[in-house]
Amino acid sequence: MTGARLRDRAQLFCLTVERTVLLPVLASLGITPTQFAAMRYLKLNPGRCVSDLAEALHSSRPAAANLSDRLVRQGLACRHEDAGDRRRVKLQLTPEGLEAYARVVQGTDGWFAAIAQAMGPDELGLLVRGVDAFVAAALATGEAPDVCRRCGLEHDSACPAAGSDPPAVP
């Protein structure tokens, strides 16, 4: 398979997931993909500041500040002062934000379970092994050093990116 063909298949896979399940679930909750990325980061890293969010999302600090403002206005996140440094403002999801996050995960999990059932165990095993091999090969190039800490998923020791530990939360 050529690089272009692999690229096309990877893009098709990502677009299928995004357009078939993720975007409709997010739209039903009034959440944008960028807002969900921020929510996922805050779910796994509660109490982080706007500059941490900006770094995690590869965005500017002003863009992350605007994003956090929208989440706060929607009641999905809240701010609180750092007890050790009152100049520092920490972000975390509200109970409503945690519920919305859980609804997105539940909606996507149901879709993936149906796809796994339709594929059957042999094809599913091939897909998982193929994705693992793809991620491992991409990480071996040294061009994706922060996949583990940026993917936003719960840590899984079987993940092909598990060689790089997520950062400790201060």
Give a description of the structure.
The chain has 170 residues and is mainly alpha-helical. Helix content is 64%, strand content 9%. The protein has 7 helices and 2 strands, in the order ααααββααα. It has a two-stranded antiparallel sheet with strand order 1-2. Helix 1 crosses helix 5 (95-119), helix 2 packs across helix 4 and helix 3 (50-57) crosses helix 4 (61-73). It is globular, with a radius of gyration of 18 Å.
Number of strands: 2
Strand content: 5-15%
Q: What strand line-up does the widest sheet have?
A: 1-2
Q: What is the residue-mean pLDDT, rounded to a whole number?
A: 85
- Determine the number of helices (DSSP H or I, runs of at least 4 residues): 7
End-to-end distance, in Å? 44 Å
Shape: globular
Largest sheet: 2 strands, antiparallel
Which H/E pattern describes the elements?
A: HHHHEEHHH
Radius of gyration: 18 Å
Which tags fit this structure?
single chain, 170 residues, mainly alpha, two-stranded antiparallel ribbon
What can be said about this structure in brief?
The chain is globular and about 55 Å long. The chain is built from 7 helices and 2 strands; from the N terminus they run ααααββααα.
Per-chain topology:
Blueprint: H1 3-29, H2 33-44, H3 50-57, H4 61-73, E1 77-82, E2 85-93, H5 95-119, H6 121-140, H7 147-150
Antiparallel strand pairs: 1-2
